[in-house]
Design brief:
mainly alpha; single chain
C-alpha cells in the first residue's frame, strides 16, 4: 500500500517524466555531439555552410528516435528511455536517412539561394523563403510519421503535405510549440538545453494523437483494399 501510494503521487510522476525527458535529450545530444561542437565553436557564416550541412546529417535519425520515444510516452505513459530510443534509432534509421538527406539538401540549397538573393529587389528571395517554410511544414509531419508508421519515401511527402491542410489545428499547435521552445532556448540556453528537444518531441506527438489515429485507420483501409484487389 505504501509503495502504491508513493508511485501515484504527482511529485513521483513529475520526477519520473523529468528523468525520461532528460535521458532522451541526453542521447540526442550525444548522437549529435559533432554538430553541437561546430555550432558553439564555428561562426555561422556562409563559408561554413558545408560544415554545418555535414554535421547535421546524423541528426535526422536521432530526431525520429526522440519522436518515437516521446510518442510511446504519450500513448503508454511509460518509457524505457535507453531501450526505446536506440531501438527506434536502429529500426527507423534507413527510412529516416533517405528522407533526411533529401530534405536537408533542399533546405540548404534554399538557404544558399536566400543568402545570395537577400539584396536582390526581385521576388526570388521571397519565393525561396516560402519554399523553405513549406519544407519545414512537411518535416513537422514527415518525421513523426516515420517514427510511428512504415511508409515509403515516395508516399511520405504526399501524406505530409496532405496532413498539413487536413489537420490544420495540429499543424498550428506544433508550429507554435517549436517557436515557443525556440524562444525559451535562445533566452535560457544553459537550462533549456537539458530538456528542450525531448519536450518539443513530447508536445509534437501529443498534438498529433488524433491525426495519427486517423492516419493509421486510413492506411489500414488502403492496405486492406490493396490486399483484396
Amino acid at each position: 500500500m505504501m509503495s502504491r501510494s508513493i508511485t501515484d503521487r504527482p511529485l513521483y510522476t513529475m520526477v519520473r517524466y523529468l528523468y525520461y525527458f532528460f535521458l532522451t535529450n541526453f542521447y540526442f545530444i550525444v548522437c549529435n555531439l559533432l554538430f553541437f561542437i561546430v555550432f558553439y565553436l564555428a561562426d555561422i557564416v556562409f563559408e561554413n555552410i558545408l560544415l554545418f550541412y555535414v554535421t547535421l546529417i546524423p541528426m535526422g535519425p536521432t530526431i525520429t528516435a526522440v519522436l518515437s520515444s516521446m510518442g510511446k510516452l504519450v500513448r503508454e505513459k511509460d518509457l524505457n528511455p535507453t531501450k526505446d530510443f536506440f531501438i527506434a534509432y536502429k529500426t527507423n534509421f534507413i527510412t529516416t536517412m533517405k528522407y533526411w538527406l533529401i530534405q536537408l539538401t533542399v533546405i540548404f540549397i534554399l538557404l544558399i539561394d536566400i543568402l545570395q538573393t537577400a539584396t536582390d529587389t526581385s521576388l526570388f528571395s521571397m519565393i525561396y523563403l516560402i519554399l523553405l517554410i513549406v519544407c519545414i511544414l512537411i518535416m513537422i509531419y514527415a518525421l513523426p510519421i516515420i517514427a510511428r508508421f512504415e511508409v515509403k519515401i515516395k508516399n511520405l511527402f504526399i501524406i505530409s503535405i496532405y496532413a498539413n491542410f487536413k489537420y490544420i489545428k495540429a499543424t498550428l499547435l506544433n508550429v507554435s510549440t517549436i517557436v515557443a521552445f525556440g524562444f525559451i532556448y535562445f533566452n535560457f540556453p544553459s537550462l533549456s538545453t537539458l530538456f528542450t528537444v525531448s519536450l518539443i518531441g513530447y508536445f509534437v506527438m501529443y498534438n498529433l494523437q488524433k491525426p495519427m489515429i486517423q492516419m493509421e485507420e486510413e492506411m489500414s483501409q488502403v492496405s486492406n483494399t490493396e490486399e483484396s484487389s
